Amino acid sequence: MRDYTQEEIEEAAKFIEPDRDHFFTYAGLRTLSDRYLAKGYDGKEVYELPQERWLTIAMTLMSQEDRANRLSLVKEAYWALSNLYMTVATPTLANAGKKAGQLSSCFIDTIDDSLQGIYDSNTDIANVSKYGGGVGVYIGKVRAANSDIRGYKNTSSGVVLGFVKSTILL
Fold it and tell me: In whole angstroms, how large is the CA radius of gyration of the chain?
């Protein structure tokens, strides 16, 4: 929370309403704990409570707002999140307040019809996925099976797709 002063963080901490944790079902709370709450390096100890996660998300989303009224915006966003009136995409839920990590979940890439284009797209997709972003890939520019490559007839094998954890591999 490097965009906030210590005083702002202390003020925002007063917004937390622990009783709102009771809005979760067991399954919802377990999912939140298993996938999104901050944990120690071993991945076992949970160091964050649900209401702290909501506040961290609100503070992250409002960090670039005008200082004069951003705490009121943080309070409003926290209220909506903690009362389950608003939700955020998985990358925001998992990565808000952390140094690395993507807050957006949807990215589109177009693969060019060249070996370099295919490898460049694979690298881009891997980097976006590494930080939690989801990727859609347009492959319509890649030549079809049995197309010519540099004058050699019926050489292209076309696009071969494999699906692993909803990621398209080329």
Answer: 22
Cβ neighbours for 84, distance < 8 A, ≥ 6 positions apart: 23
pLDDT digits (tens, 9 = 90+) for 106-143: 888 888 888 898 889 889 888 888 877 778 888 888 87
Distance between CA atoms of 60 and 103, rounded to whole angstroms?
A: 10
Query: What are the tokens at 140?
Result: 């319509």
Distance of CA 114 to the CA centre of its chain: 30
Q: Indicate yes or no: pTM above 0.90.
A: no
Q: Which of 65, 67, 28 is nearest to 53 (CA)?
A: 28
How many C-beta atoms surround the C-beta of residue 117 within 10 A? Answer: 14
DSSP state string for 97-158: TSSS--S--EEEEE--SSHHHHHHHHHHHHHHHHTT-EEEEE-TTSPPTT--BTTBTT----
Between CA 143 and CA 114 the distance in angstroms is 9
Distance CA 75, CA 15 (A): 6
By percentage, how much of the chain surpasses pLDDT 90? 45
**Which residue has 């919802």 as its token pair?**
28
